[in-house]
Amino acid sequence: MVWCYINDFIRAICYKKEMNKFLLFLPIVFIIIISAFLLIFLLQNKDPNKPPTALLHENLPNFKLNNLFKENKTLSTNDLNKKFVVINFFASWCTPCKAEHPLFFDIKKKYPNIFILGINMQDNNVDAIKFLNEDGNPYDYVGVDKNGFIGVEFGVVGLPETFLVDKFGKIIYKYLGPLTKEIVQNEIQPLL
């Protein structure tokens, strides 16, 4: 009995001319709504090379890194107090990391007071040591993040990634991808 009333109600709605007109305009309404959201997103000037980071303008996360060359030597967040720090996440298997590697020698030469921390992420220690012995080691300290846990704390989504930390321990800059001379000159040097 109830089913008959529901069935009659549905038929009445479907056969009304007004409802048919509404159903014809429904796809247009959806297209307008989707277009509005797309337009709002495009007007925000989002750069895919600069994804947001939850840590920007926040304190460094707490970490403790074993040294790549001397396993019994460690470095922690507290060791970086009152130092301007460049942190670079890299790996020996990462081709873009190898492309940006010489730029860290330039930074070290121009700004000798900056502490450059290299964090070797998810890499074989033997391969990382071989890479740094062959191509040179621009880092003041090379830490090991074998499982990627420290990278997760920093919000690293891919290699290489570079962070700048001021003397107060705040992250003031993050770059995802390989650095270039232009990025160093235009974005990093003004912050140093």
CATH topology of the largest domain: Glutaredoxin
- Please give the largest β-sheet: 7 strands, mixed
Shape: elongated
Number of separate helices: 6
Compute the separation of the termini in Å. Answer: 80 Å
Rounded radius of gyration (Å): 27 Å
Query: Which percent range fits the helix content?
Result: 40-55%
Order of SSEs: HHEEEHEHEHEEH
Short key terms for the protein model shown above:
single chain, 192 residues, alpha/beta, Glutaredoxin, seven-stranded mixed beta sheet, 6 helices, 43% helix, elongated
How would you portray this structure in words?
It contains 6 helices and 7 strands. It has 2 domains: 2-43; 64-191, Glutaredoxin (3-Layer(aba) Sandwich), CATH 3.40.30. It is elongated. Helix content is 43%, strand content 19%. The protein has a 7-stranded mixed β-sheet with strand order 2-1-5-4-3-6-7. A hairpin with a 6-residue loop joins strand 1 and strand 2. The protein is an alpha/beta fold and 192 residues long. It has helices at residues 2-15, 17-43, 95-110, 125-135, 149-154, 181-188, and strands at residues 64-67, 74-76, 85-90, 115-121, 141-145, 161-165, 171-176.
